[in-house]
Amino acid sequence: MSTDLVCPSCGREDDLVGERQGELIVITCTACNLTWERDPSPRCPTCGRRDLRPVPQAVWGRSRGNQLSVVALRTINLCPDCDAEVLRRHLDSGSPVPPDENPAAGLK
Ligand SMILES: [Zn+2]
Ligand SMILES: [Zn+2]
Predict the structure, then answer these.
(1) Is residue 89 in some structural domain?
(2) pTM listed for this prediction
(3) Which of 13, 22, 63, 72 is a plausible cystine mate for 59, CB 3.0–4.6 Å?
């Protein structure tokens, strides 16, 4: 594995296992059991830039008691142009990017 890759959850880079699945590489962190996908050649769908920044994004789900909470992280690729605002907020806060949608709206 290339060493520019770290687990977005625990930050380790030595315990990652990658498995190719079609266009994507599915990566598993054996330290914390997080699994996420990585596109080996990401490209901005809007402007076509290729120097995208992979960042962790929270995934909402329902845990016990029907509470909405962050149940997982996935990796999304942000474009320095098109997603500049989201990227800046992520870098400022150091925390995962919030989900695209308000979780309370979509889940019933
Ligand atoms: Zn991890
Ligand atoms: Zn772009």
Answers:
(1) yes
(2) 0.59
(3) 72
